[in-house]
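Q: Structure tokens for this one, please.
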Amino acid sequence: MGWGYRTERIQAGTYLFLYTLIASLPFLTFLIFIFNNNKTFLFDYYFFLKNFFNRKIWWIFIRIVFIVKIPIFILHIWLPKAHVEAPVSGSIILAGILLKLGRYGFIKIFCTEISKFINNESIIYSIRITGSIIIRLNCIRQKDLKCLVAYSSIAHMNIIILSIVSITWIRIKGRIIIIIAHGLRSSGIFFILNRFYLSTKSRRIIVIKNLLIISSILSFFWIILCCLNISCPPSINFISEIFIIISIYAFNFNSIIIFFFILLFRGFYSILLYTIVNHGNKNLNFNTNIYSLRDELILFFHLFFSFSLILIIFIL
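A: Here is the predicted structure, written as tokens:
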């Protein structure tokens, strides 16, 4: 809300403030009540059953604070606005850190009490898989690069909930891995999009053209990030999606067909994103050679950890 001159940032900041405030207040009330009675923030399920009436409503309040931060489809409106209007540092922090806390909190809440969660998991599961298809189709029609990546980020993280009903170690590991992989991939793409914006003062697809000739270094980083977006091997994204496919197969075999359509749409707009930016008529105002060592190191370490962390995963 404070950086920049665009008036839309006030609206984006308002959406961010209202969504997080409305979702967090009931959860804050829940924490204060637990602390006043137990003198600790440790969750005690038996204390919850004994002292809380309308427990299903309270479980909704506990989950909604993390569902908004994931964000789940229908409650995702604030995230594209926040990403599009935020500066590059804000987008990197939002995609690389803040959203991951929502996913991690959702997994922790899920592990506190499993049986009741699984009883209504099919509703969230259906919303997730439907929302992933709708959002990926929406990505294909986007004309703003940053908006496209923001919607892609939402669709990518939606598939975590498709494996949330499984509690085996391989599926829990898969969720955590895809959280880390998404943080590396998204923050790198948002950083390179900022280079486009600084050079052309625009994020429109029709403006950013012929990157392959103008800046071969930037084109190299761009194609690797697009490959990470479609989870090409041997990246950490590829391993995480293998775990997710195993989870979906264990929960509902019929969902595999829908999930493959989701992967197909993602591959389509990722390839489209690469070809449109790298080819086409040259924009005379487009000059994006990376001369700064700092920029090269930032992009290099994004790619380095995306490929090197796979060794740590196999060791663990």
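A few notes: The longest helix spans residues 169-200. The chain has 14 helices and no strands.
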